[in-house]
Task: structure prediction
Amino acid sequence: MANVLIIHQCLVMGGAEKLVYELAKFALENNIKPTVLVTGGYSEEYYDGIFRKMNVPAIRTRLNNISTLRHPKKIVKAIFWRLRLKYFSSKFDSVHVVGLYTADEIKNLINHKKKYFWHVVNSIQYPDRKLPFSSELFKGKDYTIIFIDEYQSQEIEEQYGEIGSKMINFKLFIN
Result:
């Protein structure tokens, strides 16, 4: 049985939660054991109960700004997951990060050869239609950027120029 880690930042609202659910469901249906790592918040949300019923571990912790944490258990958990991603992520066959905002923040924490970054927004959602990601995100040879609509790859190429990362278009919605 393969293992996959799906990372999602809870502060990003919208369809990303549904995508995380669909990825976890797909993994289970294909004999892959998913683990969902939700960063940035500790409050239980709608999908936590659903993941429990699916027997999918949903871990909530923070990967950045650990120094602002005050609860010892939260500090230990955050440090554990930073170390696990950096030095022991080989337990997972692949690591998927839903949302380029999150991927951009933690890309250097993940030491894994199979990193998949799911792009779930369009430039129209940002001021002046400029995406706020660092160009480094699109130059990593060991990164795979997954686009959920055909316009996203065009927007990335127009704003950032030539892309060094592998790019995959995954049609999320079928008409």
Notes: The first helix runs from residue 16 to 29. The helical segments are 16-29, 46-53, 72-87, 100-106, 150-160. The beta strands are 2-9, 32-39, 58-61, 94-98, 115-119, 143-147, 166-169.
